[in-house]
Write a structure and sequence with these properties.
This protein has no helices and eleven strands. 32% of the residues are buried. Strands 2, 4, 5, 6, 9, 10 and 11 form a seven-stranded mixed beta sheet that branches. By secondary structure, the protein is mostly beta strands. The protein starts with a strand and ends with a strand.
Amino acid sequence: QVQLVESGGGLVQAGGSLRLSCAASGRTFSGYRMAWFRQAPGKERKFVAAISWSGGSTDYADSVKGRFTISRNNANNTVYLQMNSLKPEDTAVYYCATGPNGAGWGYWGQGTQVTVSS
């Protein structure tokens, strides 16, 4: 059974930083992309960042470019999201997701809350 467990969320002041982690287990993730999405209260879930299996290709939403960095460690099936210069509008539940390249995001975590105070 595939499990994705996020951690690292919390309350931070505007301008601060947080590092989210997502540990994946339950199968071999060779070739799988990993990504972060977020959902603010009353809004739809939105893409934040994604990374290829090798880590050589990354993609970011325009709203986080230059502030967030996605990375992964395939030795322990973990993906990270370093979030710097946080803004109140970054407040959301952050979810990690994974799936085979070109096949969508088949697996999701339960989410971790990030709250940025002004």
